[in-house]
Amino acid sequence: MALFFLRIGAQPQPDGGEGLEMLGRLFVEAVQSGSAQRRLELLHPATRACINQQTEEYFSWIFSRQMKYIIPDVKFTVSSQTLAETWQPGSLDYPVRPTHQVQIDFEGRPGSGTTVVLLAAAEAGRWYEVLPCPSRQALALERKAAAERTAQEDRAQRAVADLPAGQRSEVVTLLKAGRRVEASQKLAAAGHELSEARRMVDLVEARANLRPAPLFAAASKEIVAATNTPSGRPVMDIVIRELERRPRVSVLSIETRSPGSSVGLSFFLLCSIRRLAELRGSYRYVVKIEKFGRQTQMLVGFLETREEGLEALGPEFGALRSPGDVIDLEEFAPICDRMR
Questions:
Q1: Scanning 67, 183, 246, 267, which has the fewest C-beta atoms within 10 Å of its C-beta?
Q2: How confident is the model at residue 6 (pLDDT cuts 50, 70, 90)?
């Protein structure tokens, strides 16, 4: 497939240093907010023009992976540099030739650094990220890779659920001592593939609350594109806040200012719970008790497997049954990835 670039032309160029640093900071804010809409706004108009019914799946994959990053407020750095004139995009189709590179470095957890690189170009006095327009071959490859990642995640989830108490305790002890690599190596020596062992360490760490995150909050206006009524009031305006965090349970407050459609409301609640489950330790299965204590509160319990007994979550869940009342959040992944 032929590569093509649109010429930016003799438009005013924004300041390279400050403008590119701002692009990096806006990326961090979009990831921290969990809003794909804010992430989408960072893309160059020519890249956004590539997004259609056939390609939106590709961009959703990119965004959903990035939204899993944990970027501390002050513990990240942004740097930039000019791309060499000899830079080539390889087999990728960029609608605009990137002129600069923005690098974001952060430590999502102690002793584990992550680097994100954005390719950037200027348009109408502002810097944007340039992503390639996916070809059919790229879409097919990404679908295959996504299926492999899902299978690997399922294996890691089940392996953690079946992890003997002694091994789990040993991993927690090593993590508390900052010996993450050794924890992964011990699980690998026990028969797990190294990549699976590393993911298992992540899950054990999150579920042991060794990386406590701030209490969760979500607003429909930040996640779902708002449609206004003639009076200007949004059709759906809902705010969800985590009031209390127990070992495997969250108490949520749901403030409904304008409910919108019942279908939209249901999906927003489920997709918000899915984001919370990811933050609490990449849980795939949950159970929920609506109107807990009062009309506007909900109790959500997180499960490692569909068949797990509910008694460990607390006496409030005594009336529910596993697996009949268990919700598989991955069933809503295609919809939720579009809503973010």
A1: 246
A2: very low
Q: How confident is the model at residue 81 (pLDDT cuts 50, 70, 90)?
A: very high
Q: How far apart are CA 338 and CA 268, in angstroms?
A: 11
pLDDT tens for 210-232 read 876 778 888 887 655 444 444 44
**For residue 70, what are the domain limits?**
16-134
Query: Nearest 10 degrees: CA dihedral of 198, 199, 202, 204?
Result: -100
For residue 168, report the phi and psi dihedrals to the nearest 5 degrees.
Answer: -60, -45
In terms of Cα–Cα distance, which of 79, 130, 68, 136 is closest to 102?
A: 79
Query: Which CATH number is 82's domain given?
Result: 3.10.450.50
In total, how many domains does the chain have?
3
Based on the domain organization, do 258 and 304 belong to the same domain? yes
Domain-terminating residue out of 187, 207, 227: 207
Give kind and range of the element (H or E) at residue 246.
Answer: strand 236-246
What's the pLDDT score for residue 216?
87
Exposed, middle or buried, 17 (CB in 10 Å: 0-12/13-18/19+)? exposed
Structure tokens at 102: 């923005």
* Cα-based distances in Å from 189 to 93, 203, 205: 42, 18, 19
pLDDT in tens, 150-194: 888 889 989 999 999 999 999 999 988 888 889 999 999 999 999
CA distance 102 to 80: 4
